[in-house]
Amino acid sequence: MPDGAVWAAAGFLAGCALSVFLPNKDGIKRKAPNSAYRRRDVMGSAIEQRLLQGPRFVCVGGGTGLSTLLRGLKGFTRNITAVVAVTDEGGSSGRLRQEWGVLPPGDVRNCLVALAENDNSLNRLLNFRFDRGELNGHSLGNLILLAACELVGDFSKAVEEMNRLLAIRGRVLPVTTETVVLHGQTAEGKHVKGELEISDNGSNMKRIWLEPASAKPLSDVIDSIPAAEIIVLGPGSLFTSILPNLLLNEITSAIRIAPAPKVYVANLMTQTRETEGMNITAHLDWIASVLGAMPDYVVVNQTPIPSDYLERYREKGAEPLYLSRDEEEYIEGKNCTIVYADLVNIKDGKYLRHHSQNLAEILMRIARDERD
């Protein structure tokens, strides 16, 4: 990718920063706001105060699932720390990781946009994807994060700058700033390496780990966990979004001993190849084996999936994830509370996604019950 593209993105970032931080110097006198504006300011202040008093969430994951959760949660609290996996190897993120040596920006970008005050216009801009030339396949948001990283010289500092620039409700943190690679071993003893190979063999995995094993999590991530009032795992791809965060020993230790309840949000469907044939208890068993403890809660969808979408996903090898009676008994026997909710949402008339608002309301109810 040519340097000009990077500096174009850097210029966009700088322009945004100037528009946010430079004072008004045009010398024009502004009219005093009328009563309607004053009432709006009072209402805005009241809402802001309510958000500031919301429970402290630590949300662990990556990909589409985590950003979907954050989009709903930001309406209830500003005290959100999103911890994002950095093992993505596909698409624009994978290319930038290979060509520039930068940590994959895609999942971080999605979470930043999800927590922004006005995510609609930002979605269109930062998720704009070039369709020709050397930039083909790259999203503008990924290039901006790359430019910020080049300007400040550190991925975590670049993300912090974006946190401030977008005035997001909470903060987004990469789980580590070290370059880590997923490794695994299948049931037949085959060694697989990288997120793509792990995903292709997920339902047949026997164990997974990160290399280098000595990789350290970001200190801000570790500091956020003891202060959390609720720790949420998922929704998201089991082997490539949730577990990579938990493969850092300091993360698992901090989560395990934290007093906050641990909540796993189950996916709506199995994922082609990665979790084919796996039920919800199999997902929970993997999390418990890596975390060293069963989550305190599991949130499960109870809404029927429309038949046309069900057939479309089944053609790709995906099946809906509902709990059987045997699974309920197994989970309850592990002292894990099952919370059922209506979580199905159809996005853009094409994709099954968690219902952001309903999921956030369920998690807020758990947080309030734990507070009481």
Characterization of this structure:
The chain is of the alpha/beta class and 372 residues long. The protein folds into two domains: 52-85 and 175-372, Rossmann fold (3-Layer(aba) Sandwich); 88-174, no CATH class. It has 16 helices and twelve strands. It has helices at 3-21, 35-52, 63-73, 91-100, 106-115, 119-126, 140-152, 155-165, 195-201, 219-227, 238-246, 249-257, 280-291, 307-314, 325-333, 356-371, and strands spanning 57-61, 80-84, 171-174, 181-186, 191-193, 205-211, 230-233, 262-265, 297-301, 337-341, 344-347, 351-354. The strands form three sheets. Strands 3-2-1-7-8-9-10 form a seven-stranded parallel beta sheet, with helices on both faces. Strands 5-4-6 form a three-stranded antiparallel beta sheet, covered by helices on one side. Strands 11-12 form a two-stranded antiparallel ribbon. A hairpin with a 3-residue loop joins β11 (344-347) and β12 (351-354). α5 packs antiparallel against α6 (119-126). The relative contact order is 0.12.
CATH topology of the largest domain, by name, is Rossmann fold
Helix-strand string: HHEHEHHHHHEEEHEHEHHEHEHHEEEH
Shape, principal axes of CA atoms? globular
Q: Name the CATH architecture of the largest domain.
A: 3-Layer(aba) Sandwich
Overall structural class, as computed from helix and strand content, comes to alpha/beta
Largest sheet: 7 strands, parallel
Count of helical regions: 16
Strand order across the largest sheet: 3-2-1-7-8-9-10
